[in-house]
Design a protein that fits this description.
Number of helices: 16
Radius of gyration: 26 Å
Shape: globular
Number of strands: 19
Structural class: alpha+beta
Helix content: 25-40%
Largest sheet: 19 strands, mixed
Amino acid sequence: MNSKIVTTLTAAITCLSIVSGGAAIYYDKTHDKGNITIDSREEFLSVNQDLMPQTAASIVQGSGDGFLEAMFTGREIPDTDTDILIWAKSDNPEFQTVLEDTSLDLKIHYDKNNSEALVNALITENGSQTLSLYADIEGDTAGLYSPSISEYYYDLTKEQFINGFETTTGISLAATSNAEDASQDPAKESADPQPLDDAADDQNANAESSATSSTDTNDSHTDNTSIEDSEFMNILDVILTAVTKDNVIATYSDNLHLEHVDETISGTTYTCQPSADDFENMLYDLCDYMDTHESARSYIHNILGNISDKSDTILDIETLLVNEDGCLKNKAKEIATNLSCSAFTWSVISDSTGIGRTLNLSFICNGINIMITCEKASEGAMYMSASLDDSYISILTTPSKDCESAASHLGLSYGTIEISAGDMSSTTKALITTTRSEDNTKDETVISFNAGSRIGNMELHIESKNSSTASMPLTPAEMHIDMTSSSDEEVMTVFKTYHNKITSILLSSKILGMIL
């Protein structure tokens, strides 16, 4: 078997293990210094759970309700009413002259239950408006209007609007357009956004898998967990059988320093290093599970299917997990040997109360040294980093002590986030600070970073309100063009015209010209 496939599968299994979120109880005990014996593997997994910002189930299900999170992850957009104003400034006088009176103004209203969506997008450069765009969906009807592009207001059906938008932009609105169906039938939800024309086929596949998986999901999963979420947890449970009581070593110390959050604690270090036999037994269990659960194979196919056509490696991994020809079982020993030879080390540290404070995961994949680190301070700060040989990215989050809620209505954390990325030759840093106004009506996020000697130090400001002033402009009847009975080709001509003209406006921007 191709070694790259084996090592890539190694990395995939390893990364899945990081987000272990199984419910477990920490067993309190009196410690002596040095090696100690743990009561069970659940103790080790419990400490890991404390170090995850979300459990595995909530990561897959997408329990966050921030608007920006939905936009960047493709998850269902929550009910939203917000006005967002984005502007920037630079300490480079030449670039600042371009940034003066330049902004992006977004006004958004979205009500899932009433099938209402209303978006206004306005771009202003040096005080002159270069783009104004208005779009709305209400029930089964939609409207599209931009005086920057055309004098006409286009009346469309909801389906025409979604088809036109997705085809010209490549951005899926399935999570939004199918929101009502998905909320009524969890089996229709998808772990990944899908193109609209694939939705019907995938919903049929999910409906079939729903009947099968009704007997092979864990009773411990809550009622609001979808079929796909339960399947992920079941597969993860099998993967975590590689962790045993015998392959975890625990050591207690009263002087453990957490360097990234600068804190010294007393606690226990747990180190897990599964053997080749542990990995092989896990792979046999995984093979048996995949062979006997059609819903699991459907789930893996839905996750990997869209990208397997573009990657031979992903296709081979999908073949290993989905096919019933014994491929995974035949290769289990080889894969297990590669896993055990990858210098795989998984360690966590808990403090004297048993709360997880540090996670370190390291292994070698395709000759690259990979390390993932997470540290949690007693006051709520969280550090996370990932490195590949000499390249790295790290995130240090320090929550605000002044805000009762953890995140803004856009889903951004109140407080500061410091992001660093680099290699042996250079390092880039950005500082993100989110605060709330005293009258509780507005959030402001400031992203500070150095954009190079030509542009200088930049500050990107994002101001957002928890109310919306979005509206569709009143236009005379003679300006309306009814497209509801038009052909697909005619509708696509309108959307392609909009797409091309908006692209042209953006490319002619002075800001973009200076950056390029």
